Amino acid sequence: MSITSILAAMSKGPNFSRTLVVSGPSGVGKSTLLDKLFKEFNKDPPRKSPGDYFRFSVSHTTRRPRTEPPEKAEIPGQHYHFLGSKDDFKSMIDRGEFIEYAEFSGNFYGTSFETLKSSANDTRRCILDIEAQGVRKIKASNKLDPVYLFICPPSLAALSSRLDKRGTDKGDALRMRLETAISEIEYAMNPSEKAHDFIIVNDDPDEAYAKFKRVALGYETAEDDAEIDDRNSATAQGVFKEVEETLKNRT
């Protein structure tokens, strides 16, 4: 790769200063994409270093940190601010400390004003990884002007397989995640909602990351290559039709 190509790949686009809101069903690969982004553009994640590009907004949650497998164990203050109880979370709600919060699979998740405030004078781009409920609340609040990015699975079957292989949910918990995924995809891809600025199908890992990186760097389009962009759009529409058919068959 030439020096010119390297510099172009590292440059920041016009949307870089705006918060990036990333959402998508559990198991779609958001964490993998974010981890890869931070490793490429930050010197020593999660520590702050001069020249870093991104800052991950750490949400609050009432669920317990994951400890298995050990290499993916969640670290308090790095992955989430783990609260002691739902009462603690509700007290923060009562004090108006959240810009958005949502209940998901029996636990609360929220983004505090304090978390965003601490990055207001930061040159790094702030990234939020939140659920669809949180996206709705941010949109309704009119307190942010972010870029909205949705990560979509190539199919419901592929998502189910990924969740099953991950092994963190079984039985009813797994079914609940799939039901939530159907709802999230329906909202994200419904033309009348216009919920997101970008939709990236996480089918081919390298291709998905290339598009994800371009959006994260602040560019107006997710892909320079029209053929790849058209294929991404076609796959996304196929998933949306699959969700529509699933919902239609239930009525």
From TrEMBL:
It comes from Mycena maculata. Residues 17-217 form the Guanylate kinase-like domain. NCBIfam families: guanyl_kin. Residues 65-74 have a biased composition (Basic and acidic residues). Coiled coil: none annotated. Belongs to the guanylate kinase family. It holds the Pfam family Guanylate_kin. This is guanylate kinase. SMART domains: GuKc. Its EC number is 2.7.4.8. Keywords: ATP-binding, Kinase, Nucleotide-binding, Transferase. It is an enzyme of class 2 (transferase). PANTHER family: GUANYLATE KINASE, GUANYLATE KINASE-RELATED. Residues 45-74 are annotated as: Disordered. The lineage of its organism: Eukaryota, Fungi, Dikarya, Basidiomycota, Agaricomycotina. GO terms for cellular component: cytosol. One of its GO terms (molecular function) is GMP kinase activity. The keyword Lyase does not apply.
